[in-house]
Amino acid sequence: GVRANADTPDMIRMARRFGAEGIGLCRTERQFNDPQRLSIIREFILADTAQERSAALERLKDIQTVDFKALFSALDGIPIIIRLLDLPLHEFLPSIEECADERTRQRVCELREINPMMGHRGIRLGITNPEIYAMQIDSIYAAKQEVKADVSVMIPQVITLQELIWVKKLIGNRDIKLGTMMETVRGCLRAGRLAEVADFFSFGTNDLTQAVYSFSREDAEKKFLTTYMEKRILRDNPFEIIDVKGVGRLIQIAIEWARKTKPNIEIGICGEHGGEPYSIAFFNAVGANYVSCSPFRLPMARLAAAKAAMDGMDLEKIQESAELSVP
């Protein structure tokens, strides 16, 4: 199957026109980029009292409910997976140079991290600030009561089953499926246990590649990755074409372990590799149910997925081809 990464009603409508079978990734942090929403989440972050935080969250809940209703209306029956907040809170605040007052400057300094990619983000943010994830789940459910939709929520940066159990308690008995983004090495190595609670996995191959390689994508591509490929130390840019030998092998292991626990667990791919033909052939061979990519890459992804299914290239052949390369 081929789904789309889409965060707005217009993107969903475009994805449907290009033949998407669902929305495999809807990033909720994009909804906070509007100036009005940004000002409210900043109120929440800068609040001095629990009452102020609660008031800001209530306003955000009303806005998010409206946003989700608009998203669900655009679906026209296709399913959607909504990723709960992933960004660290400091991303919503101005830089120190832009701070107009001392209180904001102090808060920016408190939240600043040495390595934000591996810091206080994703589920870690949800557990330390549970009211944020609770608000998002409440908003999704409220919107779903007014606009019927096949909705799942996805948790980013998961490393342990206990995190999923914690979110499942927030969902309670509401009719919302729960899954995890597989983008940490430990998460992949605990796939068998995570499958006990998760309804689906979706491999976030961008972050997973960074974790496996210990590369920051932005720094690697700017500073040394081109040299690595020119000198044939690496054959391909691993952020564009899936690394079958490393990242791919970890994905394969995680899928095998997950399906030992839950044979019919749904497996998706929602990283940039989901729109790249060679990577799609690999994902087909390891048993993924669908890939999800940018709406603009859907035509290519659909052709590649069809070709992979028709060619029937097995995993052994793909791995053999990868092993023949010098790197």
Count of helical stretches? 16
Q: Characterize the main sheet.
A: 8 strands, parallel, barrel
Strand content: 5-15%
Helical coverage, percent range: 40-55%
List segments where confidence is low: pLDDT < 50 over at least 5 consecutive residues. Answer: none
Number of strands: 8
Major β-sheet strand ordering: 1-2-3-4-5-6-7-8
Query: What sort of overall outline do the alpha carbons produce when their principal axes are compared?
Result: globular
Task: Give the oligomeric state.
Answer: single chain
- End-to-end separation in angstroms reads 31 Å
Instruction: Calculate the mean pLDDT score and round it.
Output: 90
Structural class: alpha/beta
Helix-strand sequence: EHEHHEHHHEHEHHEHHHHEHEHH
Rounded to the nearest angstrom, the radius of gyration is 20 Å
Short description:
The chain is an alpha/beta fold and 327 residues long.
Structure description:
By secondary structure, this protein is an alpha/beta fold. 53% of the residues lie in helices and 11% in strands. It has 16 helices and 8 strands. It has helices at residues 9-17, 35-46, 50-75, 102-111, 123-128, 130-146, 161-171, 185-189, 191-194, 205-213, 217-223, 225-230, 244-261, 277-285, 298-311, 315-324, and strands spanning 2-5, 23-27, 80-83, 151-155, 177-182, 200-203, 266-269, 290-293. The chain has an 8-stranded parallel β-barrel with strand order 1-2-3-4-5-6-7-8, surrounded by 5 helices. Strand 1 (2-5), helix 1 and strand 2 form a beta-alpha-beta unit. Helix 3 runs parallel beside helix 6. It is globular. The chain starts with a strand and ends with a helix. The model has no long low-confidence stretch (mean pLDDT 90).
